[in-house]
Every structure is written in structure tokens, then in C-alpha cells.
Amino acid sequence: MLQEEGAGELWRRILWETQGIFHRRILLMERSLDEPISEVASRLPVVFDLLKETEMGEYISFRPDANPSEIRSRWCRGHRCFVGRHAGQIVNAGWVGTSSGTIGELGREIELAPDEVFLYDGFTSPRFRNQKIQQARHAWILRILRDAGFRRAIGHVRLDNITQIRALERVGYHSFAVMGYVKLGPWRREFSGLP
What we know:
195 residues; alpha+beta; 10 strands
């Protein structure tokens, strides 16, 4: 956490969690697929593809923090994973749901309209970050989804992850809602509103 999110976030979580207070906030972002989708080139040669069920072991090796039973559950619910490979190995991946979206940080599902998709759990290997791989994957996926008849893509990002927010804005997303919760012991209050 210190390496990826910084000392400030680590300190805030220590203070909150040692006091039994939990606080999560995410920003919901959307992108119309009716608007032009610009080509985005990553700084490294990357080949994008849909992950096959037979390649799940490769995905688990790429994301050792992933829960294999949760990954199988996503697959069974019809969610699919799109990956980017550099020199044959997965360096970036993200999931797409077409009937519902999983917001893992909040423990919630959101229902989608028939022409909406939910992009979530995007991840780039730390040593391949800042190479525009995630943005290139998003642009590639958005064109596939548009061609399949979808009209709106929805995603989410932690409210304090400015780098990821800016990366999504560069491929045409804009924020439309904030969701989250505050929890103290057994008490939990959820909230949502405009950004």
C-alpha cells in the first residue's frame, strides 16, 4: 500500500481501521459509445485479446492477489476478461460485465440496462505502468463493445486515485456519481450523490 498509494493513504487507513472506522468512496464514470473513440497507442508493443477460460491459470499467476473462486464466479456470471500481453506475458487486464457490475470496494452490484456495460478491476503490472497500456486497452475494448451494439460504458475508480481518473478522462470518460459508505463497528451508512 505504501508503494502504490503513498504514506498519506497508509496513515489514514491505519488511523481509521485501528479506531474501527471504515470509509470507502468511489467515483462512477461513464462514456458514451456513440461518440468517436480515438486510437490510443501504448508506449510498448502490446497485443490485446479476450482471455480464454483455459488461460485462467495464467491470469491467477498475473494477479496472485485474485481469489480463484471469485474469478470462476465472474466467468460463470458471463463477465469476461480482456488482457494485454507484452512479449507473450499478461501485463494488463480488466473485466467487463454486461448484465450487472461488481463494485468490489463497496461490496455492491449495480444492474445495467441492456445497452450498458460495466468495466472493472483493471490492473497493470507495476513495472509496466505509465506506458498507456490501460488507456490503449480501454480504447480497444470500447470499439469492440460499440460494434456489439452497446451504447454506454460505466466504470469506477477510487475517488483518491487521481492518476486513474485522468487516464479514463483521456479516453472519453467523465464522472457522474460518487458512492461509498462509512462504517463504525456494526453500523454502516451508505451514500451516493453527484461528484
